Amino acid sequence: MSAPTLSTRKPSPAPRGHHRPAGRDSAREEFVRALRRNISAHGFLIGAVLCFSFFSWYPMVREFFLAFQKTEDGRTTWAGWSNLSYVFNDPAFWQAWRNTLLFTVLALVLGFAVPFVIAVVLNELRHAQGYLRLLVYLPVMLPPVASVLLFKYFYDPGYGLFNRIFEFLHLPAQQWLQDPDTSMLSVVIAATWMNMGGATLIYLAALQGIPGELYEAAELDGAGLLRTIWHVTIPQTRLILSLLLLMQIIATMQVFTEPFLLTNGAGPEGSTTTVVYLIYQYAFNFNNYGSAAALGLVLLVVLAGFSAVYVRLSRSSED
To answer: Distance between CA 172 and CA 182 in Å, rounded?
Structure first.
C-alpha cells in the first residue's frame, strides 16, 4: 500500500479587484455605526447652533451695522458716527447711566447680600428646610408682570400695604413711586424680592457642599459665627460668589421691566430712566433705530469691558 503524497500545488490567488483590506472595512463599519448612533445628537446640536446663531449672533451683528446707518423714507444709508454723536450729546444719556449705576449699586447691596444671608440661615436649620426653600423660590415662579403689579399695589400712597405698616408703626406715609428720592429704592426692593430665590438656592447648594470638618475645626478654635462665615463659608463659596456677582451686575445694568411697569419707565423727574429704557424710547417712541442700536452698542462694549476686567482680576487673585 503506497503512502499518501502531499500536494505541492499553491492555492490560486484571489481575483484582482475583489480583495479589500480588513482594517479599512472595519473602520468604515465603525464610522457608520458611530454616525447612526449619534445622528440624533448631532441633529439636536445643529438645531441649537442654528437657533443661537439666528436669535443671538445675527441680532448682535445687525445691531453693529445698524448703529452706523440711518433710515429715511424707507432708504438706508451710512451715517458714520452721527448716531453715536447724537447719543452722547443727549442729556438723557448721562442721566440714564447715573440711574443705571445707582440701581446696580443698590441691587448689589440688597440683591447680592440678602440671598447669601438667607442661604446661611436656611443651611443652619434642621426642620422645614424644604418648605422654606419653596417659600423663598416662590417669587421666581410668579410671572414678572404679576409680581411688579403686586408691588405697585403695595406702594400705593393711599391704601398700599407699606404705608399701612408705616401707619401702624406711627411713621409718616411715603410717596414711594412718586418721590424722586425713593422711586429708585422702591424699584430695587421689588426687583430683589422677585429675583433672589434662584441665587438663594445656588448659595444653599454651595454651602451644603462645604465639608463639616472645617466648621468643627473652627468651633474647636473658638471661632464665633461671624468669624466662621468670614474664614470658612466665604472662602469655600468664593467661586460661586464671584460668578453670581458678575451675572448680577450684567443683569442689573439691563434692567427694564421693573421701572417700566412701576414708574412708566422714566419715573418722577426722570429718576428711574435706565439705559435700556432709553434704548426703548429711541426705537419705539422716536423711531430712531440707528440711535437705539448705537446706545445698545455702547452698553455692549461697557459690559464686555467690565466682564473682561473682572475675569482678569479674578484670575490674578487666584494665582
So the answer is: 14
Q: Which of 27, 38, 60 is nearest to 296 (CA)?
A: 60
Other beta carbons within 10 Å of 105: 13
Q: Say what the pTM is.
A: 0.78
Q: How far apart are CA 151 and CA 160, in angstroms?
A: 9
Cα 300 versus chain centre, distance: 14
Q: Contacts from 76-82 at CB under 8 Å and sequence distance 24+?
A: 79/290, 82/290
* 8 A C-beta contact, residue 289 and residue 295: no
DSSP structure class, residue 276: H
User: Cα–Cα distance between 158 and 198 in angstroms, integer?
Assistant: 33
Q: What is the pLDDT of residues 209-240, one digit of tens each?
A: 888 888 888 878 777 778 888 888 888 888 88
Residue-averaged pLDDT of the chain: 83
CA pair distance 233, 110, nearest whole angstrom: 19
User: Taking Cα atoms as reference points, which of 284, 277, 220 lies closest to residue 103?
Assistant: 277
72's enclosing H/E stretch is strand 69-72
CA distance 237 to 44: 34
Residues in the chain: 319
* Sign for the pseudo-dihedral over CA of 273, 141, 249, 108: positive
C-alpha cell at 8: 505541492
Distance between start and end Cα atoms, the chain: 93
Number of H helices, E strands in the chain: 16, 2
Radius of gyration (Cα) for the chain, nearest Å? 31
Give the contacts of 284 (CB within 8 A, at least 6 positions apart).
Answer: none
